[in-house]
From TrEMBL:
This is Planctomycete cytochrome C. The keyword Signal applies. Residues 56-114 form the Cytochrome C Planctomycete-type domain. Keywords: Signal. The lineage of its organism: Bacteria, Pseudomonadati, Planctomycetota, Planctomycetia, Pirellulales. Residues 179-388 form the DUF1549 domain. Residues 1-30 form the signal peptide. Residues 511-762 form the DUF1553 domain. The keyword Lipid biosynthesis does not apply. InterPro entries: Cyt_c_Planctomycete-type, DUF1549, DUF1553.
Length: 797
């Protein structure tokens, strides 16, 4: 036996012994109810259970007799008990888990028909480290549903939206509108009073970042301070809503929900070369204040909508790219499995993003917590199985469709055809002549014609879906297994959220248009509530329902249900317009409050659920980056268009996709920074950019030591600090050092320095040799870098 084999055997025995001892020590706890979070269980349902069903249950479940090796993987207890070799996994201990070793091929190779993708194995490692969250009891799930739909409809989010007037309040002069009346009534009921109003500069910085994602200029600050009219605040808000940067800021919010990325993720991560068109469509939609019902319908079924002209047709096609943005392993050789994985991801994105429901949890069984039977899942699956989203090959690919030609495209095509015709005419003439020069001309023209034909006329394309050739209902995949099929389920929508008759699915079309219209219907109890709650979260820092992607029974209850319904009802009645809703919220008295915490609020409302003050919020990484570029004067405010160089696109089909050779050196706004799934800008990674693998309504907000170190050592931060210093010294030669420091503070923090801060800054910049330009520049660079790194810069009060 080789030394390596002996080492493997010894390690296997050691792990088996440790696992066995753990199992003995914890056997008494096998019957305990473990308190896993909804997010943990969701991870199991979406990332682990489907793999177990597809690759493990055939040999390691109780369905077909005795499981091989005595190992059952169809329940958590079965995994903990293990088989002939001992426990299959040890909670929180991936390195001691035989299941993970087998998946890696370090002991035996499991599954025996081929190694799973590295990303899937990483999911199992993460799952074990989480403590094996798993709701299964070990029995085969019966096909007959146990979901009580009538009882389920009593949950608050499935009730019809009620448009109630706001309650009376004691201080009738304080509210600016109905939003304030609802909130003040709650504060009155808890014997609390709102905080004082924020300083004008604080409010201006807050509202400018919230609406356009950029800091206000000093000129805008001075103009606002001088405006003594009663409409001063409204003038600012209307200017910001009209800015094209509004679409960039609020479009980025939607891109989180849409799990927007520019590469495919798992397996050989391939660049989505046309994803930028969807990003630009979203930005334009928010700038144009496209009604939400239209926005939703176009993204689910734009290709099935009528269009007035070529531009509208282009928008409708590009919008359906929403269905193709998910993370997938296009190298998957089991094409049936890949197709169902794509369908599952589409159902998950739509149900979370638009309905606030975790419907994908019903892929393998009835939903464990919400009134969603597995038949509802497959009713939706039939719609997307009847939609073509894949083009199969050894490495499959998402579907693309040519775009109708606009005037510029048509001119380009006409020019190409004219060049080809001219070259062919000249070639025919040259061939009738004789001589060495004519032979050279013939050779040159032949080469030119070959190049023109090879390149072809420019044909713009986009990521887009279309109805499949075969329109059919989807059969249930029993426990998610694509090869163990149950009855076909008629295409349809979620029964629990139905009001009136269900939409009729056409025999000759997928049903996407009917689904989109049902989701965007005024009668749907979920859609408007979910969207209004998202907007509230972006404005106030926390949703009325804090679990913005989950309105189900495992989500939180709304803090102000009557207010949510009043806003949702008015949002529908006034045309589903985002800008109108945002305007109402940011012009409320509540939004104008300071973020300081009073003693009684800290005791009675420590989480600020009653909104007696504004929440202090950290800037997202895009705003941090864009603010630094703005202070440095280096920001490139060009809008739209492709953002990934051709050489990177060419490299994206390689087997080493982590970087694509791309360097994040562009100075454009962060919304245009390439959003690769395997690589991102260092600021995005450090400061909690959205997880691009799923629909995200609430980003994580962490505080870590590496964040501070990055702001000290990042070449990007250092470069912007130096550019800001150069700009300040060049633009203000007439100012004294203290005046220049005052300006630097107002430019970055929108306040002047405290006496202590001024002393420190003067000591830093005043200690340098004023006759040494480089030393002076370095001192000012250090000052700006310190301002970029301070808490007041990173947070909105």
């Amino acid at each position: 036996m080789s030394r390596r084999r002996i080492t493997v055997v010894i390690r296997h025995v050691a792990i088996w012994l440790a696992s066995a001892l753990w199992a003995l020590a914890n056997s008494a706890r096998a019957g305990e109810s473990l308190d896993f979070s909804a997010a943990d269980l969701d991870f199991f349902e979406t990332r682990i259970r489907p793999v177990l069903v597809a690759h493990c249950y055939e040999c390691h479940s109780a369905t077909d007799g005795a499981p091989e090796g005595g190992l059952r993987l169809d329940s958590r207890n079965g995994i903990l008990a293990g088989g002939d070799s001992g426990p299959a996994a040890v909670p929180n201990e991936p390195a001691q888990s035989l299941l993970l070793l087998a998946l890696r091929g370090e002991t035996v190779q499991m599954p025996p028909d081929g190694r799973l993708a590295d990303g899937v194995i990483a999911d199992f490692e993460r799952w074990i480290a989480m403590g094996l969250p798993d709701p299964r009891k070990g029995d085969d799930e019966p096909l007959r549903s146990k979901v009580d739909l009538e009882a389920g409809r009593r949950h608050w989010c499935f009730q019809p939206i009620e448009r109630r007037p706001p309650p009376p309040v004691a201080d009738i002069g304080w509210p600016y509108g109905d939003v304030d009346r609802f909130l003040l009534a709650s504060l009155d009921a808890h014997q609390l009073h709102p905080a004082d109003d924020a300083d004008r500069g604080v409010w201006l910085r807050r509202v400018t970042f919230d609406l356009i994602g950029l800091p206000p200029t000093l000129e805008e600050l001075d103009a606002f301070q001088r405006d003594a009219s009663t409409q001063a605040y409204a003038h600012v808000v209307d200017r910001l809503l009209a800015s094209p940067h509004f679409g960039e800021r609020w479009g980025r919010h939607w891109l989180d929900v849409a799990r927007f990325a520019e590469s495919s993720g798992g397996g050989r991560s391939i660049v989505f070369e046309d994803a930028w068109r969807y990003r630009d469509y979203v930005i334009a939609a928010f700038n144009d204040d496209k009604p939400l019902d239209e926005f939703i319908t176009e993204q689910i079924a734009g290709d099935l909508l009528p269009h007035a002209d070529a531009n509208e047709e282009r928008d409708h096609l590009v919008a359906t790219g929403y269905l193709l943005l998910g993370a997938h392993n296009y190298e998957e050789q089991d094409k049936r499995q890949l197709e169902m994985d794509v369908v599952d991801e589409q159902i998950d994105a739509i149900s979370r993003g638009l309905l606030g429901m975790t419907v994908a949890c019903a892929r393998c069984h009835d939903h464990k917590f919400d009134p969603v039977p597995t038949t509802d899942y497959y009713a939706l699956a039939g719609i997307f199985r009847s939609t073509q989203a894949l083009e199969h090959d050894n490495v499959s690919k998402w579907t693309t469709r040519p775009l109708p030609l606009g005037p510029a495209d048509a001119a380009s095509r006409t020019g190409h055809e004219a060049s080809l015709a001219e070259a062919e005419t000249r070639l025919a003439e040259a061939r009738t002549r004789q001589g060495s020069s004519d032979a050279a001309t013939v050779k040159m023209l032949e080469q030119r014609i070959a190049e023109l034909k090879s390149a072809g006329p420019p044909t713009p394309a986009c990521m887009a879906v279309q109805d499949a050739l075969a329109i059919e209902d989807c059969k249930i995949c029993v426990r998610g297994n694509v090869r163990r099929l149950g009855p076909a389920i008629p295409r349809g929508v979620l029964q629990v959220a139905l009001v009136g008759a269900p939409p009729q699915m056409p025999a000759n079309a997928s049903g996407r248009l009917e689904l989109a219209r049902w989701i965007a219907s005024p009668q749907n109890p979920l859609t408007a509530r979910v969207y209004v709650n998202r907007v509230w979260h972006y404005v106030f820092g926390s949703g009325i329902v804090r679990t913005v992607d989950n309105f189900g029974t495992t989500g939180e209850l709304p803090s102000h249900p009557e207010l949510l319904d009043a806003l949702a009802g008015r949002f529908i009645d006034e045309g589903w317009l985002t800008k109108r809703l945002v305007r109402e919220l940011v012009l409320s008295h509540t939004y104008r409050l300071a973020s300081s915490v009073a003693a009684d609020h800290a005791i009675r409302d420590p989480e600020n659920r009653l909104l007696g003050r504004m929440n202090r919020r950290r800037l997202d990484p895009e705003s941090l980056r864009d603010a630094m570029l703005t202070a440095a004067g280096t920001i490139d405010l060009r809008m739209g268009g492709p953002n990934i160089p051709a050489d990177v696109l060419a490299k994206s089909s390689s087997t080493n996709p982590a970087e694509y050779g791309f360097v994040f050196a562009d100075a454009r706004r962060s919304v245009y920074t390439p959003a690769f799934r395997n690589s991102m800008h260092e600021l995005f990674e450090a400061f909690d950019f959205a997880d691009q693998n799923r629909s995200v309504g609430v980003r994580s907000v962490t505080t870590t030591a590496p964040q501070a170190l990055l702001l000290l050592n990042s070449p990007f931060v250092i470069d912007q600090a130096r550019a800001a210093a150069e700009r300040a010294l060049a633009a203000t030669p007439e100012l004294s050092e203290s005046q220049r420091i005052e300006r630097a503070f107002r430019q970055t923090l929108f306040r002047g320095p405290s006496p202590g801060e001024l002393d420190v800054a003067m000591a830093a910049v005043g200690a340098t040799d004023q006759n040494n330009p480089e030393a002076k520049l370095e001192a000012w660079q250090g000052l700006y870098q310190g301002l970029f790194g301070c808490l007041d810069y990173r947070y909105l009060d």
